[in-house]
What does this fold into?
Amino acid sequence: MNILDNKKEILKLQGNEKVIASIYNLDKQIVDSFNQARKIKFPENYRKIENIVVGGMGGSRFPALIIKELFKERLKRPVIINDNYSLPAFVNQKTLFVASSYSGTTEEVLTMLKEAKNKKALISGITAGGELSKKLIDLKVPFYQFNPDYNPSAQPRIGFGYAVGGFIGLFEALGVLAINKKEFDEATVFLTQIIKKFSIENILEKNDVKKLASFLFKKYPFYIVSEFLTGVGNAVANQTNETAKSISDFRIIPELNHHLMEGLRHPEILKKLLVFVFFQSNLYSPPIQKRFLITKEVVEKNNVKIFTYQLCGKNKIEQVFEMMALGSFLSMYLSVLYKENPAVIPYVDYFKKRLKEL
It folds into this structure.
């Protein structure tokens, strides 16, 4: 039996069912958080904002990027993702600052929050608790605090459905994003079906994500995306790095066409490791469809292996949800092949410990 079909061996590597349970509950995370966050009551002055700045890092950053790119053509206010300690100079009383931290303890986010307060920005947040929750309560501002029942792993990148659904609901409540409830409900039903398709119970011969994980084992994947999939491409790379303890990157068409292709010639050893994974969508614009075709030709001319994954969702929301599930399962399956525990992050923990010491 292939190890990716052996649930008993997978659980032995992971220590328990917490990671698998969290991944299988991605649809529930999104539905629960969306339904709760859309009930937030924002004061009238929040509806007069000119821009939105989201402060977040890692698994609390890419959910906002997913929503920003997915709903780029629907969002009624510009959204900036801020991923360092300081805020842009333009932040003022007409800015909404959204502090995003799953744990509520992220140093950079708490620092940004303090600066946002000093700049007199309007403030909100998404968190499971911690110091961030306490500060937002003290500030008496509207924010979304979720109860992470559907993420027993307690890892933000595995429970990121809470932030994704939370941002959709929060932006709807704010009036900057209009969501068709039927479209959302159908997308979550589709996601439930996709989770079953990618699950351990579906054997390798019939499981596209297990096939992809096997193909990427001991390789350096570049995930290639475009347009509305840009944010979720970032998520897949993040999860591969952190969950599988395996190096990866994501790149965007058309931007990569202006430089990256020329970098495929050297060093020669790279050709033994590098794989381009093209996430193909029939919803990309015609110019992007052409660029995907030609980019594949260029990559193959450089003797670099490719893998094409054709997304099957009927609309953009479904395809983003599909790729979210793919990233969670793919990184988990890779962790199994590498015999790594996806529930631990020793170097991130070490880094945070050293930061406190210095």
